[in-house]
Amino acid sequence: MHLLLNNLTDKELLLRIKKFHDREAAGVLLDRYSHLLVAVSLPKLSSEKTAETAFPELTKQLYNRIQTAFGKINESVYALVQSYFGKGNAVPVFYPNQALYRLESRIEHAGNNPIAKEALLTHLEKALAQLNAEDLRLITQFYLEQQSFSDIAKKQNIPRDKVRHTLKGVKKKLATHLMDQVYE
After folding, report:
1. Domain finish residue from 41, 74, 93
2. Same domain, yes or no, for 29 and 87?
3. Residues 72-76: contacts with CB within 8 Å, 24+ apart?
4. Total domains in the fold of the chain
5. Of 39, 72, 93, the domain-final residue
6. What letter would DSSP give residue 95?
7. Long-range contacts of 133-137 (CB under 8 A, 24+ apart)
8. Among the four 38, 52, 67, 165, which has the fewest Cβ within 10 Å?
């Protein structure tokens, strides 16, 4: 079974962990990211926090984070190490990407449920209303009119990479607005 799990993506493994509480899938993720945990932690080791105490504790915390992780595990590893070796009990850094991953998860879970879809639509309309006109126009051109980055760049006389970067930022803003609505 372990060999089959090695062929799955991180997202698929996280899904297995959440749905089936699959400890073997969690082990595969720990195996994949333990080298990153060590690489990020090594420069921060000191006489107070030695490898003998830090690595078992960090591995246990990483296992706990994997149970509820969204998106990129490497961001969780980095935030975990920063908070562990930081002064005092620092709050882990929030990454806007996490809002995107949570939103994707909510959309996937809505599936064919009309009530969940209607709730998402209402939240989406409210979030779109909070965007400025330029951001709303960019989202409309790219997603609704299905224009390419190149087409949008030509119309606005800006580089294609700037369009891509701006759209990425707008998606993060939109996801953050949606997540803020969920927590209200």
Report:
1. 93
2. yes
3. 72/10, 72/97, 72/101, 73/10, 73/14, 73/29, 73/32, 73/33, 74/33, 74/36
4. 2
5. 93
6. P
7. 135/166, 135/170, 135/173
8. 52
Give residue 20's domain range: 2-93
Whether 74 and 143 share a structural domain: no
pLDDT in tens, 7-22: 998 888 988 888 888 8
Buried b (16+ CB within 10 A) or exposed e, 154-167: eeeeeeeeebeebb
6, 28 in Cβ contact below 8 A? Answer: yes
Q: Which residues contact 155 (CB under 8 A, 6 or more apart)?
A: none
Q: In the chain, what percentage of residues exceed pLDDT 70?
A: 84
Task: Tell me the per-residue pLDDT of 153-179, one tens digit each, with 9 for 90 and over.
Answer: 999 999 999 999 999 889 888 877 776
Q: From its phi and psi, is residue 120 left (phi > 0), alpha (psi between -120 and 50) or beta?
A: alpha
